[in-house]
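Why should sequence recovery work at all? Because a backbone constrains its sequence more than one might expect. Tight turns favour small or flexible residues, buried strands favour hydrophobic ones, and helices have their own preferences. The token representation captures these environments compactly. In the example below, the structure is given first.
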């Protein structure tokens, strides 16, 4: 496999990360996961917009221009002959003696990226999934796609141990999102999801779903759902770059709607498939 280390495309075996890299020690950095369809990166612009935003919020300067990063990532896809799959890209604050505060200007942010294979969860897209409901214990800047994912990791593990696909998170009874997905309810034909705020990641798939709703006369309502409201939903679904849209048929003990994927979710999945190459 060919990987990207800063601006160099090298063999994976040659790639070395400093043991004092702040990403390694503090999770001091941010990342993006981008889907490859037919050898092309989907929604590259939106991912780069979010990458720049994460950099700004964490006060880490991008080591290269946006155009240079885009170019290198495209070369990474071509060099690996990647037709389907995804790219993981991360930028850390760089390597420096371990101290909590930011290092000086001599520390250069480090960019790494590599492709990985991932298959669309087609069975789950068709049949829907069950999820656990668990407390959102994460920090209050979930809008930054930071490397710190312990709250997400613990929630996903809880789902795995329960034999469920995803963990839906709530803060004091208000549903925020999934451990690695955005969450939506559907009521009387309207799609309802948590507003963009520091408590959720503004998913690129979420952005596309909002656009699809607008273009197809589906009401897209940004409103925080409560755990209490789950029982009144007609449908629910989750979304992410690697899973697109997946119907949710159960959350915690609550069966959603009639317990099978609903018509609005199915329509959105079809519409989404039409915009992917
Ligand atoms: C916490 C969280 N929310 C939402 C998403 C969905 O974001 P996207 O659609 O950009 O993949 C992710 C993706 O990994 C995530 O980790």
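From this structural description, the recovered sequence reads:
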């Amino acid at each position: 496999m060919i990987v990207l280390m800063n601006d160099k495309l090298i063999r994976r075996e040659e790639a070395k990360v400093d043991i004092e890299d702040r990403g390694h020690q503090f999770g001091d950095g941010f990342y993006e996961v981008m889907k490859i369809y037919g050898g092309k990166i989907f929604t590259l612009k939106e991912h780069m917009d979010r990458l720049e935003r994460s950099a700004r919020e964490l006060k880490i300067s991008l080591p290269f221009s946006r155009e240079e990063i885009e170019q290198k990532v495209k070369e990474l896809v071509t060099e690996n002959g990647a037709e389907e799959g995804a790219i993981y890209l991360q930028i850390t604050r760089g390597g420096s003696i371990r101290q909590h505060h930011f290092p000086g200007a001599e520390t250069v942010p480090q960019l790494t990226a590599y492709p990985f294979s991932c298959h669309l969860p087609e069975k789950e897209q068709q049949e829907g999934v069950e999820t656990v409901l668990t407390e959102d214990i994460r920090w209050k800047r979930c809008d930054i796609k930071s490397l710190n994912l312990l709250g997400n990791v613990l929630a996903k593990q809880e789902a795995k141990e329960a034999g469920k696909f995803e963990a839906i998170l709530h803060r004091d009874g208000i549903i925020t999102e999934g451990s690695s997905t955005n969450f939506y309810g559907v009521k009387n034909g309207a799609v309802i999801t948590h507003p963009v705020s520091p408590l959720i990641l503004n998913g690129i798939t979420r952005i596309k779903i909002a656009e699809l709703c607008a273009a197809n006369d589906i009401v897209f309502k940004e409103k925080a759902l409560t755990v209490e409201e789950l029982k009144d939903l007609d449908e629910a679904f989750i979304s992410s770059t690697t899973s697109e849209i997946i119907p949710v048929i159960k959350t915690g003990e609550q069966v959603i709607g009639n317990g099978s994927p609903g018509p609005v979710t199915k329509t959105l999945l079809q519409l989404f498939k039409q915009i992917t190459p």
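A few observations help interpret the result. The radius of gyration is 19 Å.
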